[in-house]
């Protein structure tokens, strides 16, 4: 199995399942530890905003029963655990009777689309730029220019989003202020729709990219500098191999491994970092969904989206761990 | 060398493709802009032919024919147009363009204007109400809107409460059809406000919308499970002058129905806008940018700072007033809720001292930057409430606008408190404190809390604001039925009556929970007397002049115990863009309130006129 053993795979999958189990439990505990009753809060808020609601106490009790909130806490936990592992997240409190799974189904493709494309670009260009930045043969003027491009790394993505929105959407009018595609196109596999999606997703993607690419660049640069002094690189140089060949085949290949780990770990952070960016651009992804759910105290949605973020991150890390030996033949698990 | 060249070629290709994609997007944007500009600048037949202004084909109406409204909350499930789900879908055009109410409350006059309903009259004891429907009303699919639809809908509510129509079921025993246009409601007990509270637009929308029997009869077993959406069948079907055209992830588009019943029935002409779009922008900054760029015609509530910055960049943006406070008042005045069961604050003298210590004009100038007015009473200061507010002023019961610090201190000292070396009142080694709960999500309550706490500290009460999430704020005030909650005070808001005082006063009479007497947990002899006055008021029709002295009586009990302290009228600043559309409601043309998320937006849409370009 190219360095993998069944024992290792089973142990790693076991840790993965344990992580998921602990996460579900924590999500359950945290959501119930928050002060206030979510159903009561929602209805009282509704009453305060939209005028007196007759028999509001009866309505609140009715919905608490309907949502199972009047059951013993152990029963609630058991049901929550069972339903969550079956991807049954119940119905939204704030948008009853819309199933949470429908809301996630509507939002997830946008977030994955935006997040994966952005992550791919960050990985491709970040590592490329980082390699050039760290390579000793790169001209000095390029090494001087590159850091200025990383200026946005130190600011929150929401500020980058507001900056881009102000310049390119409000002042120049090159890009739309909000949304995911134009109302003049028909969703489907057609070019006007795809072009519209790219156009509408460009600024949100750029906001995330500008803030996140710097870490990849710096990480890759550090790895290239470190590996540049390794024995096998010196041997390659002594053998007379071309410098660029050494960079791509020896240095970058080896430097990519920790970058892959970092990529997996950053999945959750990247997606959760999209929350505010999506809300700035009213981009209809998971970030917007969780942002709205927090504002509406819609606990089933908050629980479900948190679970999805954890699941994506944990799964990415698991996959990377299992793929490692396939990527790098030197790595073996199980002491073989 | 060959591999190095190949690498750079690939790199250059990737960069070029990216650049081309960006360029094509920008080009597409410019082309769209150019086309749009052409449509704007050109006049005559060619423009009309190109832009789909043919009757019944308004999907591609021009910018000049379209009104863009701010949808401040997006819908969760775009393919669900059921008006009874607990969603904010109604805000995004459903109740402003599609669903018409039976009746609509006029905030200025206090009268109930007719719409789908022609009249609704009670018997002498207010326990039988007769509804007369307007003749000639039709659903958007051409079917008649008649008594059968009303009876069907009411019976559905009665069968399915409290999932839907909870207030209908609370009051209604049965409903019967008298003829095609007449329906009789038999109530469980007398209710003079039945028409207003159950069947009229009052604050947000008529929650009990009538639905077409010929469609909903197939879904009566599970009405909440019915999506009410099928474009091939022309669903959703309502009576409004617009029909749903389409929606995207953040836009809801409606086009005018030129066969709208109102024209043939002689009710109203067709509204001028051919297309209405409710569009959701993410943040206040992006909404403001859209207003400045003329991409949005009406924005939901905004802050004074944002409004002023918008006006500076686009002079076509206006408010309700042409100067400060720019906005109009919101139906929910702000007040200081005090825990009357708290060991310290159960002393009425201390609560009265707080009332005197507060400088309401200062709250207006600091917390609102002049963007609202001080409250006279706990009631919203709409024209329809004038008779009550004036009577309270004449009786000397109005809240003072400025502070009387000496009188406040004298009241505190009369309860045995004395100033300590730190400048705070102290008794038996205990410092007089007041923690004021404010809402994290509400900048307004936080600002008010800051100013009030500062004013109280100035007279010797060690007061601090405490910011909580809305849920925690509610919970801390005992909404979880815990009588031991020891909150001291909270900046609160009350959306009660807007044309008569009963609903507001009933809140303090323990309308929801008589044991607690509301969040303030007011109790005692004055509260009992207050409750009697409110019970008397309950039996009078809204606006009955006989209610005025009763309100004054009730307010005298409030003044004696001061269970809460009124603060300010809430500000509602709704920016309007007059670039493409005119005749919006303003203080000089107050035909309705300017909120475009409530159902009275129907009036705005019918009044809008295109600006001559």
Compute the number of helices of chain A.
Answer: 12
Strand content of chain A: under 5%
First and last CA, distance of chain A: 11 Å
Oligomer: heterodimer
Give the CATH level 1 class of the largest domain in chain B: Alpha Beta
> What string, H for helix and E for strand, traces the elements of chain A in order?
HHHHHHHHHHHH
Q: How many domains of chain B?
A: 3
* Major β-sheet strand ordering of chain B: 19-18-20-14-21
What is the molecular shape of chain A?
Answer: globular
Q: Give the overall shape of chain B, derived from the CA principal axes.
A: globular
Which spans of chain A have pLDDT < 50 for at least 5 consecutive residues? none
Task: Name some characteristics of this structure.
heterodimer; A: 336 residues; mainly alpha; MetI-like fold; B: 613 residues; alpha+beta; D-Maltodextrin-Binding Protein, domain 2; Dipeptide-binding Protein, domain 1; Dipeptide-binding Protein, domain 3; 3 domains; 5-stranded mixed sheet; 4-stranded mixed sheet; 20 helices; 34% helix; disordered N terminus
Provide a quick synopsis of the model.
The complex is a heterodimer of chains A (336) and B (613). By secondary structure, chain A is an all-alpha fold.
Strand and helix map with partners:
The complex is a heterodimer of chains A (336) and B (613).
Chain A: H1 6-33, H2 38-50, H3 56-66, H4 73-85, H5 100-134, H6 140-148, H7 157-171, H8 191-228, H9 231-238, H10 243-280, H11 286-296, H12 299-327
Helix pairs in contact in A: 1-4, 1-12, 2-3, 5-8, 5-10, 5-11, 5-12, 7-8, 7-10, 8-10, 9-10, 10-11, 10-12, 11-12
Chain B: H1 2-41, H2 45-50, E1 66-70, H3 94-98, E2 103-105, E3 112-114, E4 117-122, E5 128-133, H4 147-160, H5 166-171, E6 172-179, E7 182-187, H6 194-199, E8 200-201, H7 213-216, E9 242-247, E10 251-256, H8 261-264, E11 275-279, H9 284-292, H10 304-313, E12 317-318, E13 328-329, E14 334-338, H11 348-357, H12 360-367, H13 386-394, H14 405-414, E15 418-419, E16 425-427, E17 430-431, E18 433-439, H15 443-459, E19 462-468, H16 470-476, E20 489-493, H17 502-508, H18 525-538, H19 547-561, E21 564-568, E22 571-572, E23 576-577, E24 581-582, H20 601-607, E25 609-610
Parallel strand pairs in B: 1-11, 2-8, 18-19, 18-20
Antiparallel strand pairs in B: 2-3, 4-5, 5-7, 6-7, 9-10, 10-11, 12-23, 13-22, 14-20, 14-21, 15-16, 16-17, 24-25
């Amino acid at each position: 199995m190219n360095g993998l053993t069944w024992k290792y795979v089973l142990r790693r999958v076991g840790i993965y399942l344990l992580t998921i189990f602990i996460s579900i439990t924590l999500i359950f505990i945290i959501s119930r530890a928050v002060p206030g009753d979510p159903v009561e809060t929602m209805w009282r808020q509704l009453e305060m905003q939209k005028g007196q609601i007759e028999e509001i106490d009866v309505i609140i009790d009715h919905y608490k029963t309907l949502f199972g909130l009047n059951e013993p806490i152990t029963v609630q936990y058991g049901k929550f655990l069972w339903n969550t592992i079956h991807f049954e997240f119940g119905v939204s409190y704030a948008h009853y009777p819309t199933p949470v799974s429908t809301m996630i189904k509507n939002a997830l493709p946008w977030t994955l689309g935006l997040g994966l494309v952005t992550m791919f670009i960050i990985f491709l260009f970040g590592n490329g730029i980082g390699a050039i930045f760290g390579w000793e043969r790169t001209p000095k003027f390029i090494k001087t220019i590159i850091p200025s491009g990383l200026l946005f790394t130190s600011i929150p993505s929401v500020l980058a989003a507001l900056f881009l929105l102000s310049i390119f959407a409000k002042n120049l009018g090159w890009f739309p202020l909000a949304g995911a595609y134009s109302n003049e196109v028909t969703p489907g596999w057609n070019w006007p729709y795809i072009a519209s999606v790219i156009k509408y997703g460009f600024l949100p993607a750029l906001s995330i990219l500008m803030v996140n690419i710097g870490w990849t660049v710096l990480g890759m640069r550090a790895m290239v500098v470190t590996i540049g002094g390794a024995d096998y690189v010196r041997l390659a140089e002594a053998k007379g191999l071309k410098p660029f060949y050494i960079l791509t085949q020896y240095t970058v290949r080896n430097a990519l491994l920790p970058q892959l780990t970092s990529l997996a770990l950053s999945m959750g952070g990247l997606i959760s970092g999209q929350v505010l960016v999506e809300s700035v651009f009213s981009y209809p992804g998971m970030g917007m969904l969780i942002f709205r759910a927090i504002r509406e105290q819609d606990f089933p949605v908050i629980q479900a989206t948190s679970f999805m973020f954890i699941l994506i991150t944990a799964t990415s890390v698991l996959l990377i761990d299992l793929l490692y030996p396939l990527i790098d033949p030197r790595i073996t698990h199980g002491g073989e | 060398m060959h591999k190095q060249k190949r690498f750079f070629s690939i790199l250059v290709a990737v960069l070029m493709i990216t650049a081309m994609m960006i360029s094509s997007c920008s080009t597409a944007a410019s082309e769209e802009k150019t086309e749009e500009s052409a449509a704007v600048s050109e006049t005559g037949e060619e423009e009309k032919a190109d832009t789909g202004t043919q009757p019944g084909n308004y999907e591609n109406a021009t910018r000049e024919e379209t009104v863009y409204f701010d949808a401040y909350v997006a819908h969760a499930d775009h393919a669900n147009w059921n008006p009874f789900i607990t969603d904010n879908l109604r805000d995004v055009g459903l109740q402003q363009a599609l669903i018409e109410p039976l009746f609509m409350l006029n905030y200025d006059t206090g009268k109930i204007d007719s719409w789908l309903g022609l009249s609704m009259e009670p018997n002498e004891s207010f326990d039988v109400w007769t509804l007369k429907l307007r003749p000639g009303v039709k659903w958007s699919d051409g079917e008649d809107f008649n008594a059968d639809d009303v009876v069907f809908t009411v019976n559905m509510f009665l069968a399915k409460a409290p999932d839907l129509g909870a207030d209908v079921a609370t009051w209604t025993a049965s409903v019967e059809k008298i003829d095609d246009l007449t329906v009789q409601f038999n109530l469980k007990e007398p209710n003079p406000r039945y028409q207003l509270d159950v069947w009229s637009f009052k604050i947000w929308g008529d929650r009990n919308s009538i639905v077409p029997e010929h469609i909903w009869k197939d879904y009566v077993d599970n009405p909440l499970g019915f999506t009410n959406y099928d474009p091939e069948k022309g669903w959703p079907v309502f009576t409004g002058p617009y029909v749903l055209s389409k929606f995207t992830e953040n836009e809801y588009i409606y086009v005018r129905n030129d066969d709208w019943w109102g024209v043939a029935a002689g009710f109203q002409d067709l509204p001028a806008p051919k297309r209405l779009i409710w569009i959701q922008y993410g943040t206040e900054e992006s909404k403001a940018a859209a207003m400045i760029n003329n991409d949005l015609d009406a924005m939901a509530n905004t802050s004074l700072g944002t409004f002023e910055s918008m006006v500076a960049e686009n002079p076509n943006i206006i408010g309700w007033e042409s100067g400060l406070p720019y906005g109009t008042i919101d139906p929910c005045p702000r007040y200081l809720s005090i825990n009357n069961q708290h060991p310290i604050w159960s002393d009425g003298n201390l609560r009265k001292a707080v009332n005197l210590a507060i400088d309401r004009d200062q709250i207006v100038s600091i917390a609102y930057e002049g963007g609202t007015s001080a409250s006279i009473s706990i009631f919203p200061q709409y024209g329809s409430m004038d008779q009550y507010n004036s009577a309270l002023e004449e009786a000397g019961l109005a809240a003072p606008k400025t502070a009387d610090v000496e009188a406040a201190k004298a009241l505190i000292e009369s309860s045995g408190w004395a100033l300590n070396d730190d400048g705070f009142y102290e008794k038996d080694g205990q410092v007089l404190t007041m923690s004021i709960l404010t809402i994290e999500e509400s900048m307004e309550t936080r600002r008010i809390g800051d100013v009030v706490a500062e004013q109280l500290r100035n007279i010797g009460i060690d007061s601090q604001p405490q910011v909580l999430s809305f849920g925690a704020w509610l919970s801390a005030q005992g909404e979880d039925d815990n009588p031991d909650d020891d909150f001291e005070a909270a900046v609160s808001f009350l959306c009660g009556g807007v044309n008569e005082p009963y609903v507001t006063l009933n809140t303090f009479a323990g309308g929801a929970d008589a044991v607690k007497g509301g969040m303030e947990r007011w109790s005692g002899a004055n509260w009992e007397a207050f409750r009697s006055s409110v019970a008397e008021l309950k039996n009078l029709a809204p606006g009955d002049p006989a209610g005025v002295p009763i309100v004054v009586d009730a307010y005298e009990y409030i003044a004696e115990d001061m269970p809460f302290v009124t603060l300010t009228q809430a500000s509602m600043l709704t920016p309007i863009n007059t670039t493409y559309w005119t005749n919006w409601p303003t203080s000089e043309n107050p035909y309705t309130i300017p909120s475009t998320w409530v159902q009275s937006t129907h009036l705005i849409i019918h009044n809008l006129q295109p600006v001559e370009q």
